C-alpha cells in the first residue's frame, strides 16, 4: 500500500467501533465523508482499493468491517513477482533457508512432545512415500513438516510469510525433491537422505536443543545444495513423477 492508504487505514481503525465479537465496524459512509474530509467519490475509490486488498469486508445489510488481510495479499504479490520475472527460484530458496534456520532454532525451544510426534510422523510419511514412488505424497509430507516448524513458533509474521510464499515454495521444493531423488544414491536400507535428514531435526527438537537444531537444519540445506544445486533449471518442470 502507498502512504495515503496506510494513513487511511490508521484513521479507519480510530473511527471504527469494536463489536462484541471483536470485529471492527466502520461508521456509515456519510459519517466517514465528514470525519475524513473526503469526497464521497474519493472515499468509495479508496474503500474499493482496501476491499481488493482484503482489508475491508462488506456485509450486505450489516455494514463494512475492517479485517486483517492474512497471507492472501502476500501470496498474490509473490506469485505476481515470480510470474513477471521479479523473483527467481534461487531467491525463494535463499529466503526460505534464512527463515527456516531461525524458525527451527526457535521451534527447538518451544516444541512439545506432541510436536515432536507429529514431525516424526511426517518424516516417516516422507520415507514411506518415496519408497512407494508416491512423490506427490512425499512432497506434501515435506511441506507439512516445515510448515509445522512455523506453527510451533506461533508468530503471526512468520505465519504470513510462510503462507505467502506457499505457492512458490511448493514449486521450488518439488523441483529440489525430484532432482535429489534422481541424483542421490540411496542408503543400504533403500532410504534417501533427502527424507531421513529430517530425523536429525526431530531429534534436536525432542531434546529442546537449539544448538543441535541449528546444526540439523543447516545440514538439511547443505545436503540439498550439494546434491541439487540451483533450482533455476528445474523450476517449472513436471517434477512429481
Automatic annotation (TrEMBL):
It comes from the Bacteria. Residues 2-69 form the HTH gntR-type domain. SUPFAM superfamilies: GntR ligand-binding domain-like (SSF48008), Winged helix' DNA-binding domain (SSF46785). GO terms for molecular function: DNA binding; DNA-binding transcription factor activity. Pfam families: FCD (PF07729), GntR (PF00392). Gene3D superfamilies: GntR ligand-binding domain-like (1.20.120.530), Winged helix-like DNA-binding domain superfamily/Winged helix DNA-binding domain (1.10.10.10). Coiled coil: none annotated. Keywords: DNA-binding, Transcription, Transcription regulation. InterPro entries: GntR_C, TF_FadR/GntR_C, Tscrpt_reg_HTH_GntR, WH-like_DNA-bd_sf, WH_DNA-bd_sf. This is DNA-binding transcriptional regulator, FadR family. It comes from Agrococcus jejuensis. The lineage of its organism: Bacteria, Bacillati, Actinomycetota, Actinomycetes, Micrococcales.
